[in-house]
Amino acid sequence: STWVLVTGTNNGGEWKTTSGKCLLYFAKDSGSAHLKYGDLVLWDGRPEEVKPPPNPAQFNYKKWLGYQQVYDQQYLKPDKWKLLGRGYGNGLCAFSFSLREKIIEIF
Asked: What pTM did the predictor assign?
């Protein structure tokens, strides 16, 4: 799963600029395995609101995500999303994530 920044929505063929965060779950395949920070992704579907826990004594993931300003989620099958481009994130963050991956490869 990964958090994404939503920059636009399409409702009935009309694009609207918007902003927010959504939690995406990608089905494991060769395309999703190569996603990185800063990738621009277009997906088809309507995110659902994160559901609260069924047990009141259970950890409230919905509340925790709310603190991160993430309120919606969606599971994406390979045919429901498309990579549009790379390098759209913050350069310093991209460098940090790249460095992290290289260090993990070493150890």
From this structure: 0.80
